[in-house]
Records
---
Amino acid sequence: MPYVTPSHPAPPAPAARTGRPRGGRPLGRLAAALAAAVTLAMGAVPVAPATEARAAVPRAAAALERVTDFGANPGALTMYVHRPAALPANAPVVVALHGCTQNAQLYADNSGLDTFADRHGFLVVYAETTTANNANKCFNWFQTGDNRRGRGEAASIRQMVAHATSAYGTDPARVQVTGLSAGGAMTSVMLAAYPDVFTAGAVVAGIPYGCGADVVSAFGCMSPGVDRTPAAWAQAVRDAHPGYAGPWPRVAIWHGDNDPTVVPRNADELRDQWTALHGLGQTPDRTSTLAPDNTRRSEYVTAGGRTAVEVNRVPGIGHGTPVAPGTGPQQCGATGTQHFIASICSSYWITRFFGLDGSVTEPPTEPPVDPPTEPAACWTASNYEHVRAGRATTTGGYAYAKGSGQNLGLYNTFVTRTLKETPPGHYTIATGSCP
């Protein structure tokens, strides 16, 4: 896939880190060799210096402001901010977490978040990790020393939010977080570990919280993915902050249909995790499509009528952040690197989901009804590929369509089925015409 840039865990580099040491965390030569081998097999690109990454962006972009002292920094991260020229008092905050092999400036240059920060008046806090933390500059979402409340990288990001309140006068009650791939998985970490800090999050090509506890299991979470019950996923989040009584953050999930790096099954498991926490079922209350590329949106709505969880399935793209370069009101971003894919401006819709664009975030009294002519999505593939993509599960050597539970036959690469997806996340065997 031309747009695939693997975002994957790797062991910490043996070099000393800045900040407080975390003893006992090296993974050993075997784990390092395994991570390196998989990295090569997946075609990872070398880590480019920040100046080289910026040079690849085909447009001028404002340099981020580095914050050198933001308090305790047990995870040895670097803090940057994008501050609009006229930042209002009590402005909201969006924390942005880059993917593997990226850096804060590259993410800011291409994701389009700064466009909407300038337009609507919110502060963007960019956390950046280093090769000293992780050989491929991935956030360590899979390591207990970094993905627990009060520890490592998670604690450093929390300190950035606290510093934003004291230094820039931002509103501590309006803090959101988003990120791509490893940054998306770290977004899950922050929502689980600090539900009292973040009101909402947007996970782009990410992974549910509690999936993976080391390098080996983390690769399994990415592909073929891990299938657990909604209750089990929800309990993993509750265990991250025992005794927390809510409310839980609202969550938007973005995932490319053709992502081979973090397979689409992860979008379903994320949905299961957060709908269960909100006490909702896994059948959407509303479905619709978003222009310009017919991204399929599923919304899961509370009794009060507010969308608590939404899943956005972007057709035809692999692993990356969906962007739509241009100057239109719903356009943003740049495609100067493989991490950002021309399709739809996800940052526009994420800003809207966060309620930062000035629009009314509550739905109308009469919710929208799906157009009756909206076509179903269809997939023809082997049972092995259906399972790998999250459209089916496997038990006892057989594959079963996710949602309907229909038996697809033997779980192998030889049996081929066409599955129809309607509503999103619910698959049945296509018996007639299928678009």
Note: The chain has a mean pLDDT of 84.
---
Amino acid sequence: MKPLRALLCGAAGAALAAAGLTAFVTGHASGATADAAGLGSRWYAAAPYLMPLDNNPPDTSAIMDATGLKAFQLAFVLAPNGGGCSPTWGGTAPVSSDTAVAGTISSIRAKGGDVSASVGGYGGTKLGQNCSDAASTAAAYQQVITKYQLKAIDFDLEEPEYENTTAISHEIGAAKILQQNNPGLYVSVTTAGTADGTGWFGKQMLNEAKTQGFVPDNFSIMPFDGGFAGAAAQTSALTNFNSILQSTFGWNAATAYAHEGFSGMNGRSDTGEFFTPADFQTVLDYATSHGMARFTFWSLNRDRQCTPPDNNGTTSGTCSSVPQAAWDFAKYSVKFAGATPPSSPPPSSSPGGTCTVAAWSSGTVYTQGNEVSHNGHQWKAKWWTQNEEPGTTGEWGVWQDEGAC
């Protein structure tokens, strides 16, 4: 379903029942602030995905200042590449010894925000595949929750794991255990989207949840990488998925929508579909008018304009391949959370835009921390560089995009 997301993970190493629904509605209040209890649940429902260690991670403080965003969905927690049942970031960075992601989380919380961790994703080995049962899978995830004091977690169940019935049983069982052992924990379950809502494996996952008596805060689908032509195809899939939720759990339409989420892909998808800011607005209108439970996207690493804007007809992990101002897509998540984001400047096509720092020069030597302007954005050097154009060197590039000027 998502070859780009498989590549991105490889870069790192390759219910709601009556009480729950009441808590969800309470979480709709806009402008919630971080405290000992975390954010309101509506913010966790609006948290876009962010890879904090790969794909030129953007400055979370800059995103928060530019958009009003408060919540981030950090991706992805996986089993170790060499085997075992202990949590890592991307298969290579053990959670037990992590300081880098912890630093990102501290920075976000210092500005009044919070994070959720996403486990699974496309590609890599999942803990549900390696751990012997649901209890040991839950124990591994509990390490993540405890270390980072999480109030939210996302189970991204897709290829190839969701084709493994034993692994899915472990993941759903673990989610249920975590929900029981961590009162108030916000739990989302994300899976692949198809034109009829979700495919055979997605439906089997829902049946497994029903069998185990597990109901998360939402079940979300990813309507992209499956022949989706913009927002109309996505809202059609969401309507069809609502029917699947009704038939699986015996809910009426309104209850199903209160358990349903959308997880999109901003810009150009892996298969060459295009989702513009206008498409996101259409889906957002659908989600809010139907009382949906979640609105998120993959990813903030991509929520900035490429150079050139169409990225020469390719999909990138570090920019959207459509014309936009930096962090335009994040603002739709902010709106879903109930807040009003600041306005964005239009994308600039002229080198330097209205930046106040000096323009990038191919002949100049830059060292860590040096800032330049280029194509309407401000960039910061991550290490020594010369003649590496900002915005053109992909996920391992030296330049960190600090946003439009």
Note: The first strand starts at residue 49 and ends at 50.
---
Amino acid sequence: MPDKITVAGVSVDTRHWIGGERVASAGTFADHSPIDGSALGEIARGGPAEAEAAVAAARDAFPEWATTPRSERARLLHAIADGVEKRIEELAIVETTDNGALLRSHRRGVMPRVAHNFRFFADWLLSLDHEDFETRGHTNHVSWDPAGPCVLITPWNAPLMLATWKVAPALAAGNTVVLKPAEWSPLTASLLADIAAEAGLPAGVLNVVQGYGSEIGDALTSHPDVRRISFTGSVPTAKRIAESAAAQLTPLSLELGGKSPLLVFADADLELAVDLAVEQYDNAGQVCLAGTRLLVEETVAEEFTRRFVEKATALEQGDPRDETTDIGPNIHPRQLEKIDGFVRRAVAAGARTVIGGHRKDGQYYAPTLLTDVAQDSEIVQEEVFGPVLTLQTFAGEDEAVRLANDTRFGLAATVVTGDRDRAERVTARLVAGTVWVNCFFVRDLQAPFGGSRQSGVGREGGTWSFDFYCDLKNTVTAPKGWNQDHG
């Protein structure tokens, strides 16, 4: 197996990054581009041995990194951000080739956000502090102590952005990291290792190991030297991770996707509502936050549907490297089969296809809208993670909220209304970690992010990230007992 492959003119190392060195494995797995199914190369396939080596490297590097001054940790994070910005074009084309998301989005939004992840948490670290407070004359001082080696397991739909959303605060907090990227899109994590090394990050502080699911994952998540685990992905995988981590009582942060509602009230700006609804097809529907359940007040449902169909059918689907493309491919043949299965079963159960409902050539699935769906049906209750939306109607606020909350998930919700009081009433009753009103996907890194119910455990973002990636300590000091003659 060659140590490096060339992807769209960019050299990418296929080996693990452990302890500041490239490490090969006896086995490999094939990585293919969803754009045309072409083979990109063979990737080192790690297992328990690589997991052990990576955790050991992180453990050995931890004491020095944990005691590195905040200012120096922040400087190195900014240096990594500098490296990302210098390689935005390379990172963008590699990630588009590897996971099929739009190249224009990677260039203009995603990769700049990757750099921002590092800069934000570097700056937040320097401002992180609690004011001391008094208890009966005693002084309380709260501090954030680095926890130790962290295992970060990231998904394939936004590989580098979601990886660095975890890596940046973990490193800023003084922890060392073992990053395990998704096997369907591993390449930009390898490039991140190069960038971090070039920035001067000490060996062992960031480690990247590749592999298939439980082959390497169980060894990482059950390891007694791991102090934190952060995972973004599916509920079944999260349950397995939780079982694995339970033996060590390792704290978990889990972001597990959802089945989010998008509520459109009759007083809404319908043009805005339609634009927001069509936006849910972004990244071929492979967005955990997507409002895939369109809930529309019945008095405007017909007009909303007409406008939606007109706009959605005008979307350009094709090669994500083309500037005019709006929707690219789905990530993997297995995912495409899963999407198609959901739609076929829904139609068999009585759903009506308004648009789409079928595969196209290659790994492309037509943007789909289904109506006449029952609230308790699979298509309404389960996450499809593809370009498939459902449309249901409601008669008033109570029914809208009931339908919106009637799943096992609670990641996000979008409310479109022209009535500020209604917006406040409805959002107060929705079960969701994030609610957008008359907008979608506006994310500020200082805000808490996470889900309710089976959409996740815990929150990250701003101080919440440091609360998770640190052991919070309260030091209580008495006003008496000092040797006044000392010193």
Note: The first helix runs from residue 48 to 66.
---
Amino acid sequence: MTQVEKDTRAPATAKLSLPTLTTMVVGSMVGAGVFSLPRRFAEETGVAGALIAWAVAGTGMLMLAFVFQTLAVRRPDLDAGVYAYAKAGFGEYLGFFSAFGYWASACVGNVTYWVLIMSTIGAIAPALGDGDTVLAVVLSSVGLWLFFALISRGVKEAAAINRIVTVAKVVPILVFVILALFYLKPAVFADNFAGADYAGSLFDQVRGTMLATVFVFLGVEGASVYSRHAKRREDVGRATVLGFLSVFAVFASVTIVSYGLMPMSEIAHLRQPSMAGVLEHAVGTWGQVFVSVGLIVSVLGAYLAWTLMAAEVLFVAAKDDDMPRFLKRSTPADVPVPALVMTTVLSQIVLVVTLFSDDAFNFALDLTSALTLVPFLLAAAFAVRIGLGGRRGELVVAVLATVYTAFLLYAAGPKYLLVSFIIYAPATALFVKARREQGRRLFSPPELVVLAVSAAGAALGVLALALGWISL
């Protein structure tokens, strides 16, 4: 296993170094999303829009990375950063929602891994379709629970998986970029510059890619989630920034070079993982096989890491009495099994829901991003509050991060916000249970306002689905 997973499951005395934290951030971000980027961008934008989108996303996410760096130094008393910052800044109920939303986003994100694996195998086994058939969901469910058994036991097989994944995540991506540059056709690249007729205005093109960029950058906050394990608190922020800068150029390169190999309208109709289809077009069948094998191995390891991260969020929130007590339990190997069960169950539910989606992969990808935006927005807003009494530079960065995250909520559109409310609102039952266990008042007046807003949003979401105003 990677040092990250070792230390995650080691006794509390084990501490993570800066290189390990940085590796964890990079490993968290380099996952299924990057293999899907060519098609996802080609569905929305041409080269010009892609360049602007990456400039906006890169700047915005860098501001968020700086926010996590600042908060790690200014508030070293707060562990499990994303959730803890929301709680410290805006109270226990919004802190709870932040923890739950971040956890739920990780669970939904894990579903994209299984959809992508089944879609990849579906190229040679048509019964699996695009990862959204009944057989694909059944096989994904088997894999889901096999990994649950693997992680909950802490067996040594996890070590072998992650050693392979360390290489498998990076090599296919770098090979793809190098070969794409070698086979790049300037004329094709020029034709794709303005975008196809279906892409719409430049603003619409940029907005349409925003959730995809959020998805691939998920993990930039990974060092904050494991801050309780860091040797030095300042290493959390450094690892966040170093990890982000390490992968930004790779993500942008995968997208941009693809436009030099195929017309964007053809890329937009490739099956996922589209990176395999693009490379096949350039070098032949071996390119598709190479990327596909690397993807499957990589995604399995990413699933393992993100499952552990999701369980960690619930576990730390329970230790702080913001989740029910049963989520505090862990094995002698420091595996929080009850939190792991909840993580696997929610992923299972979302897997079944993909059967009713028009595009299972993009649905899970966009929902993952939308669920993450609330925790990110609360963390950035907390940094603004701290910045008001500190350095002007920190305040400017925090404001830019907040504006960027608010823009992402706008870019997400009503569909994913309403579906997010449907997921958020029922979670209040866990908050109520935790309060009752402590013999405390269930809600303060401000918390009742938040409850009313979340319940109204969930009710509107259910109504919109029932009446066909939105679809999955």
Note: The CA atoms of residues 315 and 328 lie 5 Å apart.
